[in-house]
Amino acid sequence: MPAAITDVTTELLLVPLEPRLRAYGSDVVSIVRVLLRDSDGATATGFTYTLGAGAGIVCRMVDELIGPAIVGSRTDDWGEHRRRLAADTRRLGRSMFAPALSAVDIAVWDLRGIQSSRPLYAVLGGKPRAVPIYGSGRGSNSLGLDELVKQSLGYLRDGYPAVKIRAGARSPSEDLERLRAVRDAVGDAVPLMVDCNEQLTLADALWLGRRLSDLGYRWIEEPLIAEDVEGHAVLAAQLDVPVAVGEHLVGRYEFAHHLRTTPIGIYQPDAALTGGVTEAVRIADLAEAGNRSVNFHSLPELHIHLAVRSPNACYVEDFGILNGVLAEVLAPQDGVVVPPDRSGHGIVWDSGAVARFRQSL
Predict the structure, then answer these.
(1) What is the spatial distance between Cα 111 and Cα 207, in angstroms, rounded to a whole number?
(2) DSSP states along 37-103
(3) Is 87 within 8 Å of 95 (Cβ atoms)?
(4) How much is the mean pLDDT over the chain?
């Protein structure tokens, strides 16, 4: 029988983003870290993050609501506690509760692995395998054309076999020029993707998407705001290039609605935002049942465990949003990554950086 959870604490870290990742609305990332301790002395960690306001409220949700509800319980009780907490907070909405629940859920799964001396992927029923990784984040909208090409080629020199570029902040014609320049620089064999960060109108998304297939782009990501299900249905039906969506969808029901309503082929849940490991696995299984691909959003050190147990996962994304507080990052070897064999999720935190960026609550 697993040892009981004796302590649930949170800490808020305000971490500067490296300069080439600062084109997405913030110079810093706010990381909420959750620490679980059990009666045997084991410590596990979970986390969520925001690029805007509200991280302090997420901490309070854990400290005042979720944490007290699970102290004294065991990790094998988590499913029932999770269901009850979701039901009891339904009228609060999901905007703050979902990331708080995600952080605790990740910590519980980490503790399950630590208590059983197994890596997370094994606890989830997966087996280690190599998964291709793509570079994401350096090719931002703020870069000039020459620097955009330079950063994209830099990913290839660093061993990434595929690269994602940002678009949407400029005119569609200028974005097309930039995307064509990157394609010309890397050659036809390199897989390229484009992320529009919800910034296009339907008309502009149709115009740009119709031209991306000629350039061999693998997908167009978040062309519209995620809630525009009908617009995504139009895009997915009319474009040859696949449409990807998911980092801003919360929970399996929002994903299920997309699956029922649109022919979108690629879904991108983020376990730290959508409800934790529990919900991200459910979403991956929904996508598999619908014959859709899943490519988890960012956080490769965590999502590699989910990818290896999901046969419909074809990439891991490397956007270094946590790198400022990690002592070890997942790096490509021959274009692929494999999960660590450490117990739990195996994320190695930089204790000095954690202490340096910790905020008073």
Answers:
(1) 48
(2) EETT--EEEEEEEESSS-HHHHHHHIIIIIHHHHTT--GGGHHHHHHHHHHHTGGG-STTHHHHHHH
(3) no
(4) 94
DSSP code per residue over 223-261: -S-TT-HHHHHHHHHH-SS-EEE-TT--HHHHHHHHHHH
The alpha carbons of the chain give a radius of gyration, in whole angstroms, of 20
Q: What letter represents residue 189's amino acid?
A: A
- % of residues, the chain, pLDDT over 90: 89
Q: How far apart are CA 342 and CA 344, in angstroms?
A: 6
Q: What pLDDT, in 10s, does the model give residues 220-279?
A: 999 999 999 999 999 999 999 999 999 999 999 999 999 999 999 999 999 999 999 999
Contact 13, 35 (CB under 8 A): no
Q: Which of 258, 317, 250 is nearest to 286 (CA)?
A: 258
- The b-or-e profile of 215-230 (16+ CB within 10 A means b, else e) is bebbbbbbbbebebbe
